[in-house]
Amino acid sequence: MASNGTNGQDRRSGFLEIYARLKSELLQDPAFDFTEDGRQWIERMLDYTVPGGKLNRGLSVVDSYKLLKGNELSEEEFLLASALGWCIEWVGMIAVNDGILLRNHIPRILKRHFKGKPYYVDLLDLFNEVEFQTASGQMLDLITTHEGETDLSKYKLPVYNRIVQYKTAYYSFYLPVACALLMSGENLDNFIEVKNILIEMGTYFQVQDDYLDCFGDPEVIGKIGTDIEDFKCSWMVVQALDRANENQMKVISENYGKADQTCITRVKAVYKDLDLQGVFSEFERTSFERLISSIEAQPSKAVQEVLKSFLAKIYKRQK
């Protein structure tokens, strides 16, 4: 059985073992009589789509549940926490490619492993809710980008915050902790403030992402940022539009969204003139202070630990 030790590599390899088990169960699902070709197609599609990246969201369920429980997880508990973690990784794929098949795998996993649990219905409800929020956030992002291409004045902070909250924060930050709370026998209605803290953390995370896309070291973050040429409703451009004088506004409107290095350099020069690096540093400092204060106001020490573990992973990250 998979290892659930504290060693990061053991934890990750144990989590990947559960993926292999879930995949095998889905490929042997008695609800559909797979041909061999069909089974191979699904297996290749799953392996290509689901288990890539850092797996932070899925592993956060395991980590959060362990902190709430206060000791090592049994093999059964590790399996269940990992199964929910993998369901979250599946949600992320749906946000990207709206795969109907992938969407239908989630209730199959939940039914197989959680049907007898008292929180089964709450889990189904939670995943349905967060999937709807994530898909709606994705839609809002696409619509806003489309409108922004003809009218940059659409890129305002309230619009940006709404996109980020629904597209990223619910599934990346709230969903892993909500899963762990349900497994611990808690009622999510009692954790509205925890939800709000996690949504704010998710917004802070996305602002960091947007900043790193522009000013991060490509060798550290592992990619070259493309928000400027992709006409993204990025935190950077929202802040710049809010501060720019007439000249700077002209430079942004003439160069933003163009896949030309000269245009990208001109936009970044405006960002530097407006000291958006300083603006970001101040945002990071005040966000951290506000989050710590909100976290320490939580009555449960275990919940505080969970929230602080999330914040520690993202504060002043470089990638």
TrEMBL record:
Classification via Pfam families: polyprenyl_synt (PF00348)
Alphabetical keyword list: Isoprene biosynthesis, Magnesium, Metal-binding, Transferase
Gene3D superfamilies: Farnesyl Diphosphate Synthase
Protein origin, superkingdom: Eukaryota
Gene Ontology BP term (one): farnesyl diphosphate biosynthetic process
Transferase as UniProt keyword: yes
Entry GO CC: cytoplasm
Gene Ontology MF terms in the entry: (2E,6E)-farnesyl diphosphate synthase activity; dimethylallyltranstransferase activity; metal ion binding
Listed cofactors: Mg(2+)
Family note: Belongs to the FPP/GGPP synthase family.
Name this protein carries in UniProt: Farnesyl pyrophosphate synthase 1
Organism phylogeny: Eukaryota, Viridiplantae, Streptophyta, Embryophyta, Tracheophyta
